[in-house]
């Protein structure tokens, strides 16, 4: 569990029993966590980066990215959500209204979306997920919908909308794909 107010990631077993926690009050403010390839990937909004830890020893920081500066395309202004696939790391940069895509070792690859109120643009991107066909699902709290982009970053469709009835949303934050 990413607990931004505790400045820690809290670990529980499959029965909900507390196991351990890690983090500190320095520049660590976790907002999302993703387990993949025996690693714990953490969106660290306090440090403007993605931290990657060993799953076997959670206190063991393996590496972080990016080391970029504001204004560069790979800089993470407010990394709030992370999703990892076999070859890519998708990061919601809430502060830049984009989804930024990196390789597993942190090399910048591409972005999806831009700031705006039009189709395929993002105003308050939050939770993300990627399906088996590499389609990217992005929750946007401003539009109160989920937009779906193909692997080339083109908008396919969206669902939801401002809450008025069934199928609409009110402040959505996360999306999960379950087969």
Account of the protein in words:
With 179 residues, the chain is an all-beta fold. The strands form 4 sheets. It has a 4-stranded antiparallel beta sheet, with no helix packed on it. It has strands spanning 2-3, 8-12, 18-22, 30-36, 39-44, 49-54, 61-65, 79-84, 89-93, 98-102, 108-112, 125-130, 136-140, 145-149, 155-160. 0% of the residues lie in helices and 44% in strands. The two termini are 23 Å apart.
Topology summary:
Layout: E1 2-3, E2 8-12, E3 18-22, E4 30-36, E5 39-44, E6 49-54, E7 61-65, E8 79-84, E9 89-93, E10 98-102, E11 108-112, E12 125-130, E13 136-140, E14 145-149, E15 155-160
Antiparallel strand pairs: 1-2, 2-3, 4-5, 5-6, 6-7, 8-9, 9-10, 10-11, 12-13, 13-14, 14-15
Spatial ordering of strands, largest sheet: 4-5-6-7
Uncertain segments are none
N/C terminus separation: 23 Å
Structural class: mainly beta
Brief account:
With 179 residues, the chain is mainly beta. Helix content is 0%, strand content 44%.
Jot down its keywords.
mainly beta, four-stranded antiparallel β-sheet, 179 residues
């Amino acid at each position: 569990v990413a607990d931004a107010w505790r400045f820690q990631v809290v670990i529980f077993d499959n029965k909900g029993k507390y196991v351990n926690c890690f983090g500190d009050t320095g520049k660590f403010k976790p907002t999302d966590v993703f387990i993949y390839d025996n690693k714990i990937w953490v969106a660290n909004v306090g440090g403007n980066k993605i931290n990657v830890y060993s799953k076997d020893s959670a206190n063991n920081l393996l590496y972080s990215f990016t080391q970029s500066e504001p204004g560069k395309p790979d800089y993470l202004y407010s990394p709030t959500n992370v999703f990892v696939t076999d070859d890519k790391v998708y990061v919601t940069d809430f502060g830049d209204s984009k989804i930024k895509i990196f390789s597993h070792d942190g090399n910048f690859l591409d972005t999806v979306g831009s700031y705006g109120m039009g189709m395929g643009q993002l105003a308050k991107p939050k939770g993300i997920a990627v399906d088996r066909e590499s389609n990217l699902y992005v929750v946007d709290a401003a539009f109160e919908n989920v937009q779906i982009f193909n692997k080339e970053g083109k908008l396919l469709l969206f669902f939801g909308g401002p809450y008025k009835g069934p199928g609409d949303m009110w402040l959505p934050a996360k999306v999960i794909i379950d087969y």
